[in-house]
Structures are given as C-alpha cells and as structure tokens.
C-alpha cells in the first residue's frame, strides 16, 4: 500500500511569490489534513478537507488556502509569501474525518523563503 | 488557551534501557490523545491513540498511559533500541464543537539512544 506522497520535496521561493504544495492520500482515505512545522516550534494545524469540502482551518491568515479534488488529492496554496512561512509542510490522511482513526503522514515539503 | 507541555525537552539514554516521556495538557474535554514518533527528515508516525476513557494503550515496546483526572499522559519505551532515536510528539484533539477541530501539539521530546 502506497503511503501519503507529497510534492515537491523542496521548494524555494522569494517574498511575495505564491507557492503550491501537493498531496496524494492513501488509497481509500477521504480526509486530508495540512500542518505547518516551523523550526523550533511544534506542529500547527492548518486545514482539514473531507469529501471535497473544507471542514475546518487553524489560526492562519486567509492567504493560506487549499482544495481537495474528486480523487481526494489536495493542494495547499500560500499567497504573498513571507519569510516566516519558511517551514516543513506536512500532509496527513485518514479513513474518516475527526475520528479515532490514525492519521498517516507524508514526509513533507520543505518551503524556504528567501 | 489549550496547551500541551512535554518533558523532558531532550533525553539521552543507553541502548537497552527503559525511559518515560511526559505530556501534560489543558485541553478539556478532549476526543483523543495521540503519541507520534518523528524521525529526522520524515513525517510523524502514529504510535498510540487513546480516548478519554482509556487508561493505557500498547504498541510493541511502546506503552502510553493516560490519567484524565490529572491531565497527564506518559509514553514508556521498553528495552530501547538505536532506532528509537527520534522526536516523540504528544497531541490532544478537542471534542468537536461547533465544527471546530484544532488539535494542540506539544513541542516534542528529542530522544537519543547511545550504543
């Protein structure tokens, strides 16, 4: 069974640009979660998608957005990039949203803002 | 404000020894408490998931305990191996309320196992 895959592995952008990160969940999983892991900080919840709908978002500005496609893959868009957006962005998937099912993580996209 | 505090921040032990990591939280009521292992450069891997009504959950050499009265959880690692060197993260998910789902993560305990 293929795990959660994320692309690209690394992404380098400059301030003000826009970044798009992609995530393919495990086959059969309908829920996708996005997290930010900045250096020295704990993971922070960004977004939760389930069955194509945004179910909830964390305490992040609107320039962080995303969507989930009919095949349950997802993309995270970050507009007007700022230096503080440099972080590892992790995607996870689960069989059911908001349940006690385990979340399976990808290895992340390292976003660096110059 | 919901908080999850983990201790110690870092820990060094010898291979074969046992160790216990702590997680104190303020999230209440909560749906579940999870422990993850994160190797350097990799995504977290789920170790255990406990609901508020569970006291203990095991996964091989990993055993998590939960005391909902004191709002404390611990992760006990038995007979440590070199491959246990990683960051261990505690996360508490609140009860879904008004459509809100914001899990709170601890900053993790960095464990180093020496031969």
Quick gist of this model?
Chain A is an all-beta fold and 114 residues long. Chain A is built from no helices and eleven strands.
Q: Which labels suit this protein?
A:
heterodimer, A: 114 residues, mainly beta, 7-stranded mixed β-sheet, 4-stranded antiparallel β-sheet, 0% helix, globular, B: 115 residues, 6-stranded mixed β-sheet, 5-stranded antiparallel β-sheet, 11 strands, 57% strand
Fold and architecture overview:
The complex is a heterodimer of chains A (114) and B (115). In chain A, strands 2, 4, 5, 6, 9, 10 and 11 form a seven-stranded mixed beta sheet that branches. In chain A, strands 1-3-8-7 form a four-stranded antiparallel beta sheet, with no helix packed on it. Chain A has 114 residues and is mainly β. Chain A has strands at residues 5-7, 10-13, 19-24, 31-37, 44-50, 53-57, 64-68, 74-78, 87-94, 104-105, 109-113. Chain A is 0% helix and 50% strand. Chain A is globular. Chain B is mostly beta strands. Helices cover 0% and strands 57% of the residues of chain B. Chain B contains no helices and eleven strands. In chain B, strands 2, 4, 5, 9, 10 and 11 form a six-stranded mixed beta sheet that branches. In chain B, strands 1-3-8-7-6 form a five-stranded antiparallel beta sheet, with no helix packed on it. The radius of gyration of chain B is 14 Å and the shape is globular. The termini of chain B are far apart. In chain B, 35% of the residues are buried. The mean pLDDT of chain B is 93. Chains A and B meet through β5 and β10 of A and β4, β5 and β9 of B.
Write the SSE topology.
The complex is a heterodimer of chains A (114) and B (115).
Chain A: E1 5-7, E2 10-13, E3 19-24, E4 31-37, E5 44-50, E6 53-57, E7 64-68, E8 74-78, E9 87-94, E10 104-105, E11 109-113
Parallel strand pairs in A: 2-11
Antiparallel strand pairs in A: 1-3, 3-8, 4-5, 4-9, 5-6, 7-8, 9-10, 9-11
Chain B: E1 4-7, E2 10-14, E3 19-25, E4 30-38, E5 45-51, E6 56-59, E7 62-67, E8 72-77, E9 86-94, E10 104-105, E11 109-114
Parallel strand pairs in B: 2-11
Antiparallel strand pairs in B: 1-3, 3-8, 4-5, 4-9, 6-7, 7-8, 9-10, 9-11
């Amino acid at each position: 069974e293929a795990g959660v895959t994320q692309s690209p592995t690394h992404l380098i952008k400059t301030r003000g640009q826009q970044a798009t990160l992609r995530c393919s969940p495990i086959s059969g999983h309908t829920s996708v979660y996005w997290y930010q892991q900045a250096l020295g900080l704990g993971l922070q919840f960004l977004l939760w998608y389930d069955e194509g709908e945004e179910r909830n978002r964390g305490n992040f500005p609107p320039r962080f957005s995303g969507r989930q496609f009919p095949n349950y893959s997802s993309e995270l868009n970050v507009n007007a990039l700022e230096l503080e957006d440099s972080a590892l962005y992790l995607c996870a998937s689960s069989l059911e949203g908001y349940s006690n099912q385990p979340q399976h993580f990808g290895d992340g996209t390292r976003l660096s803002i110059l | 404000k919901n908080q999850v505090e983990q201790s110690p921040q870092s820990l060094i032990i010898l291979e074969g020894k046992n160790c216990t990591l702590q997680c104190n939280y303020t999230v209440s009521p909560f749906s579940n408490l999870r422990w993850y292992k994160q190797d350097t450069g990799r995504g977290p891997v789920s170790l255990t998931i406990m609901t508020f009504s569970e006291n203990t959950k095991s996964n091989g050499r990993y055993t998590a305990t939960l005391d909902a009265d004191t709002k404390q959880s611990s992760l006990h690692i038995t007979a440590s191996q070199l491959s246990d060197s990683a960051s261990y993260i505690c996360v508490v998910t609140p009860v879904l309320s008004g459509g809100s789902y914001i899990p709170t993560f601890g900053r993790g305990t960095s464990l180093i196992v020496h031969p």
